């Protein structure tokens, strides 16, 4: 039997509620403070934790849409580029905290450093492309006229073998559909890519353009059913002319 | 993507994620996105909500990889813990308890993940084991666990809803988890 810490009588029946996320914010903070000094409650948390951790495993499987990955990876890759541009300083943990202080929050993740740089850049009016060395080539895309594209604009940024489409003011694709990027070579049907995306609520979007651009005349975007299409079926949203 | 990244254990991938390596994060996403999205969907009840929660959670994981501590459990447990936390936050922010239900979007919006690998099959077996363990609980215990963990309700809200003293609700939660733990003891699902 573990010894009880101060205030144990008040908290002893809160362990399961804590593990189930059923305490409000103030109670949770109070319980965590108590937990730090109460071996009896820590022992009960350890005892019940396997059951609480098993709960999420019990749910029916539901597949996420491919566009979700495209959106997440667009942000991740952008921040990874920033991190790389920030250089080794960003990869160096902050000076270690004094022994026994154990303040993990002082050890900034390098990605957090990149995110902070992004925020600082925005605050002082520096665009993301200026924080890194800037694209080798930027092509202004032509928006197709139609509902919702009046304020939209998009650019294709090309860096060596890599290309990224960056857009602002885009309308959301029709319900159940997603934007898909295509590569068009002269005399060939548009080639599908795995780049599927939906703009954020503010209309911004960023998508890596996979594959080689060698021989590509146009990068196009159409709206397609969730999961993408092998050939274009939806309306054309924009075209970037490379040649 | 380099094949060797896919050969790495989650914990090794997280070391690369901590250093800002996007391809390593992509493998972590591919391994856990389905479980994460399923949990988010179970809690918030709509596909759009589940997408928002999953996106927030994975970007948080990418940006806070340094906070993963392997001594406190597997990467999967850590990921699902973050998703759960974000999903409950989403519910409480939106106060959509009364309108969130999977039926909002119809059953046609729910579709099962394809069984692709032995890992998927093993996970389905694990899910069945956990569902069986929950199924052995008295209804009054499984009900409060469901309302708290998947419904995002606090013990006070549950007590009001069921017109039952708060102390009784907390006791049911505790007894239910203890019984589940006993049912699952020896299983591999609770790492």
Keywords:
heterodimer, A: 243 residues, alpha+beta, Arc Repressor Mutant, subunit A, Immunoglobulin-like, 3 domains, 7 helices, 31% helix, B: 191 residues, mainly alpha, Rna Polymerase Sigma Factor, Chain: A, 2 domains, 9 helices, 68% helix, disordered C terminus
Could you provide a short overview of the structure?
The complex is a heterodimer of chains A (243) and B (191). Chain A has 243 residues and is α+β, with helices and mostly antiparallel strands. Chain A is 31% helix and 23% strand.
CATH architecture of the largest domain in chain A: Sandwich
Decide which structural class fits the backbone of chain B.
mainly alpha
Number of helices of chain A: 7
Roughly how many Å is the radius of gyration of chain A? Answer: 25 Å
Q: Approximately what portion of the residues of chain B adopt beta-strand conformation?
A: under 5%
- The CATH class assignment of the largest domain in chain B is Mainly Alpha
Report the C-alpha radius of gyration of chain B, rounded.
18 Å
The CATH superfamily of the largest domain in chain B is identified as RNA polymerase sigma factor, region 2, helix turn helix motif
Question: What is the mean predicted local confidence, pLDDT of chain B?
Answer: 82
Fraction of residues in helix of chain B: 55-70%
Class by SSE composition of chain A: alpha+beta
For the record, the CATH architecture of the largest domain in chain B stands as Orthogonal Bundle
Could you characterize the architecture of this molecule?
The complex is a heterodimer of chains A (243) and B (191). Chain A has 243 residues and is an alpha+beta fold. Chain A folds into 3 domains: 8-57, Arc Repressor Mutant, subunit A, CATH 1.10.10.1320; 66-131, no CATH class; 137-241, Immunoglobulin-like (Sandwich). Helix content of chain A is 31%, strand content 23%. Chain A has 7 helices and 9 strands. Chain A has helices at 8-11, 15-19, 25-36, 39-54, 66-86, 110-123, 128-131, and strands at residues 137-140, 142-143, 153-159, 162-168, 177-185, 191-197, 205-209, 216-225, 236-241. In chain A, the strands form 2 sheets. Chain A has a 5-stranded antiparallel beta sheet with strand order 2-9-8-5-6. A 4-stranded antiparallel beta sheet of chain A has the order 1-3-4-7. In chain A, helix 5 (66-86) crosses helix 6. Chain A is elongated. The termini of chain A are far apart. Residues 91-108 and 117-134 of chain A have low confidence and may be disordered. By secondary structure, chain B is mainly alpha-helical. Chain B has 2 domains: 1-113, RNA polymerase sigma factor, region 2, helix turn helix motif (Rna Polymerase Sigma Factor, Chain: A), CATH 1.10.1740; 117-191, Arc Repressor Mutant, subunit A (Orthogonal Bundle), CATH 1.10.10. The longest helix of chain B is centred in the N-terminal third of the chain and has 23 residues, at 22-44. Chain B is globular, with a radius of gyration of 18 Å. Mean pLDDT of chain B is 82; it is low at 96-115 and 187-191. At the A-B interface, helix 2, helix 4, helix 5 and helix 6 of A face helix 3, helix 4, helix 5, helix 6 and helix 7 of B.
């Amino acid at each position: 039997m573990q010894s009880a810490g101060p205030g144990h009588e008040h908290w002893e029946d809160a362990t399961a509620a804590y593990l189930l996320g059923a305490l409000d914010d103030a109670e949770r903070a109070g319980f965590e403070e108590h937990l730090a000094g109460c071996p009896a409650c820590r022992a009960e948390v350890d005892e019940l934790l396997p059951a609480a951790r098993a709960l999420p495993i019990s749910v029916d499987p539901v597949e996420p849409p491919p566009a979700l990955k495209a959106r997440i990876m667009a942000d991740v890759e952008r921040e990874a580029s920033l991190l790389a541009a920030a250089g080794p300083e960003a990869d160096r943990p902050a000076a270690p905290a004094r022994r026994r202080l154990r303040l993990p929050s002082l050890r900034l993740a390098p990605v957090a450093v990149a995110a902070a740089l992004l925020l600082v850049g925005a605050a002082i009016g520096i665009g993301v492309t200026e924080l890194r060395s800037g694209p080798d080539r930027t092509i202004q895309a032509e928006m197709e006229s139609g509902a919702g594209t009046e304020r939209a604009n998009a650019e294709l940024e090309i860096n060596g073998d890599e290309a990224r489409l960056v857009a602002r003011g885009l309308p959301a694709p029709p319900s159940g559909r997603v934007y898909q990027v295509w590569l068009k070579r002269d005399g060939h049907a548009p080639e599908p890519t795995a780049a599927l995306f939906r703009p954020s609520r503010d209309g911004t979007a960023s998508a890596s353009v996979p594959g080689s651009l060698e021989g590509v005349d146009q990068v196009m975007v159409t709206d397609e059913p969730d999961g993408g299409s092998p050939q274009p079926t939806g309306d054309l949203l924009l075209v970037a002319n490379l040649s | 993507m380099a094949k060797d990244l896919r050969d790495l254990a989650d914990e090794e991938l997280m070391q690369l994620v901590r250093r800002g390596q996007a391809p390593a994060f992509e493998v972590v996403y591919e391994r856990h996105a389905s479980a994460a999205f399923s949990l988010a969907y179970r809690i918030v009840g709509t596909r759009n909500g589940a997408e928002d929660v999953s996106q927030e959670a994975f970007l948080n994981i990418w940006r806070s990889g340094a906070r993963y501590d392997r001594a406190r459990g597997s990467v999967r447990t850590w990921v699902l813990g973050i998703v759960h936390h974000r999903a409950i936050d989403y519910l409480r922010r939106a106060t959509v308890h009364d309108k969130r239900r999977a039926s909002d979007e119809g059953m046609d919006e729910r579709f099962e993940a394809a069984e692709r690998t032995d890992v998927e099959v093993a996970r389905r077996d694990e899910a069945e084991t956990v569902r069986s363990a929950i199924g052995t609980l008295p209804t009054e215990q499984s009900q409060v666990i469901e309302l708290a963990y998947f419904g995002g309700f606090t013990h006070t809200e549950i007590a009001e809803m069921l017109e039952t003293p708060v102390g009784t609700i907390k006791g049911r939660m505790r007894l239910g988890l203890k019984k589940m733990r006993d049912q699952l003891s020896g299983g591999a699902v609770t790492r």
